[in-house]
Amino acid sequence: MSTREILTLQFGHYANYIGAHFWNLQELSFDYTGTVKTEVNHDILYREGKTATGEVTYTPRLLLADLKGSLKTLPESGGLPEEPQENEFQWNAVEKIEDPAPAKNEYLADIDGEGPSTVETKQYNLENDVNTWTDYLYPRLHARSVNIVREYVHGNESESFDINVSGKGLWKGDFGDAFSDNIRKYVEECDSMQGFQVNFDCTNGFSGLAVGCLEYLADEYTKPILAHPIIPSYFPDNNTTTQEDRDKANIKDSTRLVNTALAIQELSEHATLFVPLCTGDKGWRKPGTPRKFDYLEYNPELYYHSSAILASAMDTLSQKYRNKSNIYTLSDICADLTGYGRKMAAASLGIPLALNESQYLIDYLNNMTKPIYTCITPSCKIATDKIFQLITVRGMPESYLKAPMKEAKEQMNLPAYRCSNVKEMFELYFQANNFLSATNVTICEKPLEVKTPYPRIFSNELNKYGFVRNEDVQQKVENCAVIAGYHNGNFLSDMIEKLHREVSRIKFAKLHKFKEEGLEASEYSESLDRLAEFKDNYEDDFEL
User: pTM for the complete prediction?
Assistant: First the structure.
C-alpha cells in the first residue's frame, strides 16, 4: 500500500490553536499495543525519523508559522531531545545567556513527568491555564516544523502583523526562502505524495504569507492544494464601550475584511479547493453570533474552545483521504467538488451526533425535522437542493441501526428498514432530503476521541459515548459520533456577494496601511473585480 503523503502547513495564531487540537486528536488516538484495529493510515500525515541522538521519532509532517513570543514553553526545535554539542575548541566557547523559560502549566508538567495515563485521569483547569496554543499541545514536533516570524511580536498592538500585503512581502524575503526550503525537504522524503493541506488565519498578515506560499506551491509542485482560510471566533475589540474604541474597532474590522477578501480572491486562482471556516455565523467584519451545536456548551471568546470544534471538523473530514480501506485522495475530493470553476466549498459539522442511548438510527433520522449538521462556513446557509457533497460519519455503531425484526413494529413500514448498514441508511437519508444532488458518504467505525486536553464542552446530558443518557448518572464524555461534510452549489453565490458588497463599501483612500505596504489603487480595484467574476461561477444552474 502506498503511503500517499500529505504535507500540512499552518499559518497564524488561531490556525495553530486549531492545529494543536488537530494533532492532539491524531496522537492521542494512536494504539501502541498493536491490539486495536485502526482504520487510518497515520503515515499520510506523519513521518518517521530519528533525533540527533538516534532516538526514533514519529512526528507530524508539518510546517507552521507564528509570531515571535507566541511559543511560550515550546522550544523552536519542536520539543524533541537534542544532542548536546561538544565544543571543538574550548577556548573559543561563548557563554550563551537566555531568558528563563516560562513555567509550564500542570498539564504540560504532567506530560513530561507522569505520562498520558495519569493525564487522562486528572482534572485540569485549562480554561484558565491556556494562554497560547502551546499550552495544551501534546505531540512533539520535528525540528523544521516551527518557523517564527521575527519581524513582528505576538500581542504587540503598536506594530501588529495585520496587513495582507505585509505577509506577501515577507514571503518574498528570507522567511519565504527558508520556508520553501523546508517544504522541499519534506517533499523529497515522500514516496507518493498526495498534496498539501493549508490552514491559515485570513484576517491578518498571515493571509498574505499563506497566499504567497500557495502561489509558490501551485508553480513549483503539480499537487492538489486544499486550503482552509480561517476566521477566529472572537476578536478582543468586538465588545466596545466608548465611541473612541468603536472607531478603532471599525478600522480593524475594515482591515480584517479587506485581508479576507484579498485572500479569497487569490485562493480562487492558486488553490485547488478552498473552504472558509468560522464558528461565527457572519464572519465578515465580525465573527457574529456563535454557531449552535446541540449538546455543546462552548465559550466563543476562548480560542481553546472554538478551535477544538473546527479541529474536530478537520479531523473528521480528513478521514476520507486517510482511511485505509477508502482509496480516496485529495485529487478525488477536489475533482468531485470543483466543477464549473467552483473552487470554493462550504463545510458542516454535527458534533455530537447525539441519539438517545436507547434510540435507533432509523428513528433518529426519520424524526429529524432540521439538518443533522451545522454550517461552519461564514455568511453561508447550506442549500438542500442541487448540491455536490462529501459526507463523513464516524462512530455510529451498527447495533444502533434498526430494531431486530421481531421488535421492529412501525420501523418495518419505513423504506429505510431495508438498509443493511449505516452507510446505506445515510445515503438514503440524503437522497430523500437533497433534491437533484450528488452525495458521497464515508463511514468510519471509530468515534472522535475527546481525551484530555480536549475542552469539557459537552452537555451533562450525555453518556461517556456521547449519546443522550436515560439514567441520571453524570458521566465524562470520552468519545462521540460525529458527522461532517464539504458542500458545493449555487448557494455559495450569496456568500461571495455578501463579502464583495461589504468590502466594496471601503474606500481605498482610507486604507492607509495597505498603501504604505505597496498596494496600489488599481490592484485593489482589480482584485475586487476578480472576486465578482469568481462569484459568476456559482450563478448558473447546473445539472448532475
Answer: 0.95
